[in-house]
Amino acid sequence: SEGFAATRLLVTDGKARPSLFKRVSAANDGRADLFLSVHHDSVPDRLLETWEFDGAKSYFSDRFSGHSLFVSRQNPHFATSLMLARMIGRQLKEQGLHYASQYTLPVMGRYRRQLLDKEVGVYRYDGLVVLSRTRSAAVLLEAGSIINRDEEMEMNSPERHEAIAGAVAAGIGEFCARR
Questions:
Q1: All domains in the chain, ordered by first residue
Q2: Residue 178 to residue 37: CA distance in whole angstroms
Q3: Which SS3 state, helix, strand or coil, does residue 128 take?
């Protein structure tokens, strides 16, 4: 609805890793100009706490919140991917949303990442299949932390959906205009 020449929504099923390879294959076979993979974030298992909700045991971590953007130096279009991630990040920031800063902390262990842009929250993550194996510019957006109880509720709101979708569309629109 934002006027892009073509878009394609990829929703794959099955186990996580094979599903990610399906997405990469679809993007590569379709000769995508750019690839955006949208997810909801969590935290390492050792940072989770338990609680009971509606009679069932559940897990949470209210310690961290916010969105994150990831790019890979292994992507053949790293500089372009970084430019796109920064554009989306600026738009998310303009919507009043903050990025998740925990990825720079030692407590993240093997999930600790290099922060490439401290203004808008763009991190380097070379091990993600959807970033490193896609032959087009590729960005992964963790739209927010669904393991944070307050943020999970906010992310269910139409207002948050609109803020994120609007920011992504504006960032991609700016990206396309520059190309």
A1: 16-178 (3.40.630.40)
A2: 21
A3: coil
